[in-house]
Amino acid sequence: MSKSCIFCSIIDGQEPCVQIHRDNGFLVLMDKYPINPGHALVMPTKHYETLLQMPPAEVGKLYSLVPAIAKAIISAVKADGFNVGQNNGIAANQIVPHVHVHIVPRFHDDSPDGKWPSRRVASQEDILKIAQKIKEEIS
Question: Is 102 tagged catalytic?
Fold first, then answer.
C-alpha cells in the first residue's frame, strides 16, 4: 500500500467507495466522476503504479476479470457498447498512480459530435442504484 494513494485508502476501507465486486486480489468500484452511467474501475488490491510494475500473471488476472464485469455493466445499464481504457503515467493522463482499468458503457446518442462525453459528478443515489443492478448481473 502507498500511504498517499487514494485507491489504497479506499481498498483499506479508510475512504468510502461504492463497491461492485471484490475477490482474488481485485476490487471493482463505481467511478465517482463517470463518463456515462455504469462507468466502473477494476483494480488490484496490491499497489502498483503502472501496468509495467505488475507481474505478468497478475496482469492476466486483472484483464480476465474485465469481460465479466463489462458484461454485467452493459446488461445493467442497457448500453449499446463499451470502452476499456487503462492509462500509465502522467503523459498518458493517469490521474491516480495505482493501476486501474476503466470500463465505460457507451450509448448510441452519447457523443453526437464524435467526441468523448464529458465526465460529471454523479449523485450518490444514482451510483448506488446502478451498482445494485450491476451486482445482480454478476451474481
Answer: no
